[in-house]
Amino acid sequence: MRSLILQTIAPVVLHLTLLFSMFLLIYGHNQPGGGFIAGLMTAVGIVLQWIAVDEEEGRRRFNWPYERIFLAGLALSTLTGVWGYIKGAYLKSSIYRFELPFIGDVELFTAFLFDVGVYGVVVGVVMCIFTNLCEEEAKDS
Amino acid sequence: MDNTFIIVFFPFAAALIIPWFAERFRKHAAWFAMVAPVVSTWALFNLYSEWAAGGRQTFTRAIAWVPAANVEISFMVDGLSLMWGLLVAGMGALIVLYSHWYLHEHEALGRYYGFLIAFMGSMLGVVFSDHLISLFIFWELTSITSFFLIGFWSDRDASNYGATKAILITGSGGLAMLGGFLLLGDVAGEWRLSELVLMPDIASQVSLGVFLLIILGAATKSAQWPFHIWLPNAMEAPTPISAFLHSATMVKAGIYLLSRFYPILGAHPAWGYVVTGFGMTTMIAGGLLSLRAYDLKAILAYGTISQLGLIVTFLGYGGKGAIIGATLHLYNHAAAKAAMFMTVGIIDHEAGTRDVRLLGNLKKLMPKTHVLAVIAALSLIGIPPMGGFITKEMLYEVSLHPGGPGNWSWFWPYLTVFAGVFTALYHLRFLSEPYWQAAEGEAPKHPHDPPMGMLAAPAILVLLALAFGLAPGLIENAIVAPAASATLGGGAKVELHLALWHGVNLPLIMSVITMALGLALYFGFAHVKTVLDACARIWGKAPAPDRIYDGFVNWLRNGTWEILLLIQDGNLRRYMRWMFVLPTIAVLYLVWRMEWGANVFPKGFAGASFLLVVIALMIAGAALATALFRRRVPAILALGTMGYGIAGLFLLLKAPDLALTQIMVESASVVLFLLVFYYLPELKPVPSSAAKKIRDWGIAIGLGVCTTLVMAAAMNTHKFRTIADYFMRTSKPVAGFKNVVNAIIVDYRGYDTLGEITVLVIAGIAVYALMRLVGEMKCDH
Q1: Could you tell me if B360 and B354 are in contact, meaning their C-beta atoms sit under 8 angstroms apart?
Q2: Greater confidence, B14 or A111?
Q3: In chain B, residues 677-716 whose CB comes closer than 8 Å to chain A
Q4: What is the percentage of chain B residues whose pLDDT exceeds 70?
Q5: Cβ–Cβ of B668/A33 closer than 8 Å?
């Protein structure tokens, strides 16, 4: 499946989707977005790119250890919960405010870290399913 | 950090990192593992001096666990838990020392030491737990860790069988015990052991069922007949594990439970009969089985079963003397039996076999090992000056005083002597067949004494047994008496003045009789064997516990398989039919019961904009098209259209988060669908009769109607006040989020999300495994 149009726009789209998914992840606490959506968007972006270039190329460029990514995501979310537990109750979110030079007030939520874990799990699982299916296809053909 | 928490939790923390070190520094793995028992022992000594300085009063230490539910982790410190703690941690250190020489460098050292130390932590948790539930949790953790330790050589079928058997039997016993705990806690209104022991009349409030459930936990763990069958199979474990779990600690957890519950349930009318009943049966059955075994470890395993039976008998017998005797015997048995297991491990290591028929004359070939084995065995037989003699005399004396359930006091001295003769007989056999007699066959390797390091651990244990006999003052009032006092409960004063020589009295005469009978039977063992074999032939026809277990497990396995085939026959259409029909029936039942009338439906559709109607129609059209397309690709695309339509609906209804998610999910699933599509067979119209078509249409329409009904009902019933205001008000200050949807996902309902991503991860792992497995299977054929 090779299409010139797809091949040309895919790299541009990839960067845009990755950028936008980061935006969704970070701004999720105040605007529409969040780890789940951002994770799906990242995964879809990579999948699109994978399909655009051919099989070999896709595997070469995106052959990341997705199993580890989703396990790490789950671990991060669970551990964030433990942090909340130390502060009172499991998964209770804590809010920290900093003042950084040049940037100004920064708020950090443990809930955000939890969301990053969710992001990791979604990206990892979707890509794990996708790469395994692709591999199977390549093996058969 | 409090000492109790260090004692219990340090091993768990260490167990997480020990594997890493053990795998990297394989030559010195044991020394990394050694840190955990050493730290626990050190904390135990601190705790002991703290307890001694506080006038030896029982105290508890607690931290909040789930404050919202008022559950806490609390530990109880008294004479009993301290004695057990020292036993477990001290033995742990010796076992690690011994393992260093026993295991080969290429084995899975990380796994071995990790689980060994985690087991030690669980066992320490069991003996220090104050709360019934945490006792249960640590109890089951010992079962789980022992499963991995027994099955350490997982490439052997016998190991896996033994591990499974152990966890099934002790695990179900543990569940019975949990049931007993829950009922007991409910009856007493108190969950802490430290409080329960102070409630005087609790035993009379507890029903027989609750009592039996708790005893069942102890009986399965301590390998009481007929649950003893897991212990011989568990001998497939590496020998240090057998020495640790199956002689010194885990099998004694049941004894601990009985000791702990003696002040609580000891006054129960059934205590004496049930506990001594278990104990005596086990003692006799274990002894007989030991005499017929040929594997050295099996001889020891059945011997252990028999000795556990003896201890349980005396716990059931009750009274001050019996409790002290049982506590002493427990201590002595732990040291001597572990040393004996270690000598067997040495023989196995150096000769390559444990079959007594292939071993012989080891007295000359392995003189040092021989000395250790002889002292340990003589201690258990009860020969002076070893510690075993003192405990034996103690038990004889107890049996002479009236006590125990019912009017059977004439019977106890005979029973105790009988137990002593048995003990002497199978331990003499343990010594004579490998060490003194000539071999019938040939051992695979030429045996010789092991390096000194390997002898160190059993030597220390043997020295302890000797020291206890020669100078019982070292531990009698420091360790044993407080433990017995705690077992008796109610602040009982226990002071011991043990000595080897009490003058010529009745217990001494009983000892002499025991020895004479034991020796007589030993020299006439050929005849004993004939009788035993004849008995075994008759008994062999009866349903032995082993056969019942195997039959039950096979029945369970086959039955499960059959039920599985019944439900999951591989026909996707049938699965779907079930999944559609059952909810339809459920909703129709609700409609009927809750009298959903016409008032469920909205009165008008005034709120619906033109655009909304258009999108709704588009979705309906796409759905119909999906069903009607005859080829897969258009069907998949139509399904995608439907999904995007729903995203449009969400946008119109001002739910941008949902819309975004829907679009993403739809894109991802269309792509995945197209990939999976490759595997699906050609979409062929299935020839089906008119009746089947009507049925399928009926199912489809029924589900559609029911879904609509549920949606309408959800929109139009206002039984509860909406929680939305609360979320809107608090999301910023509580979670720090302005986006309420996301605040719900990651904070208010964080548990749900954690559960969901866990499911997602499981699905990911399943797909990964499935695809890899399919790949491998293809390679095989």
Answers
A1: no
A2: B14
A3: 678-679
A4: 94
A5: no
B746 to A30: CB separation less than 8 angstroms, yes or no: no
Cβ distance of B750 and A43 shorter than 8 Å: no
* A21, A32 Cβ separation under 8 angstroms: no
How confident is the model over B585-612, as a mean pLDDT?
A: 74
Domain boundaries along the sequence of chain B: 140-547, 723-781
Domain ranges of chain A: 4-140
pLDDT of B646 strictly over 60: yes
Chain A interface includes B72 (CB < 8 A): no
Q: Are A126 and B763 within 8 A, CB to CB?
A: no
Question: Which tokens sit at B73?
Answer: 């982790």
Distances (CA, A) of B268 to B157, B177, B196, B215, B278: 43, 17, 14, 12, 16
pLDDT, position B10: 92
Look at residue A89 in the predicted model and tell me its pLDDT. 63
Helix (H) or strand (E) holding B24: helix B3-24
Given B657, B667, B672, which is nearest A130 (Cβ)? Answer: B672
Measured CA to CA, the distance from residue B60 to residue B78 in angstroms comes to 9
d(CA A89, CA B362) in angstroms, rounded, equals 62
Long-range contacts (CB closer than 8 Å, 24 or more residues apart) made by B346-349? B346/B450, B346/B454, B346/B455, B346/B458, B347/B296, B347/B434, B347/B447, B348/B239, B348/B296, B348/B297, B349/B102, B349/B239, B349/B450, B349/B454
Distance (Å, rounded) from C-alpha B223 to C-alpha B202?
Answer: 27
Q: Does B739 touch chain A (CB under 8 A)?
A: yes
Closest chain B CA to residue A29? B737
Residue B415 CA to residue B421 CA, distance in Å, equals 10
Q: Which of B65, B71, B653, B760 to mutate to test the interface with A (most CBs of A within 10 A)?
A: B760
Across B357-381, average pLDDT: 89
The torsion angle over the Cα atoms of residues B541, B542, B547 and B549, rounded to 10 degrees, is 180
| SS3 of chain B: helix, strand, coil, percent, to 5 | 75, 5, 20
On whether any CB of chain A is under 8 Å from the CB of B765, the answer is yes
First to last CA, chain B: 59
Chain A interface, best mutation among B644, B757, B768, by max A CB count within 10 A: B757
Whether B661 sits inside 8 A of A36 (CB atoms) is yes
Q: How far apart are CA B56 and CA B481, in angstroms?
A: 11
ipTM of model: 0.87
Chain A residue numbers touching B745 (CB-CB < 8 A): 34, 36, 115, 118
Distance of CA B385 to the CA centre of its chain: 38
Do A129 and B775 lie within an 8 Å CB cutoff? Answer: no
Select from B666, B728, B742, B762 the residue whose CB has the most chain A CBs within 10 Å, as the one to mutate to test that interface: B742
B499–A contact, CB cutoff 8 A: no
pLDDT at res. B781: 44
Rounded mean pLDDT, B381-402:
85
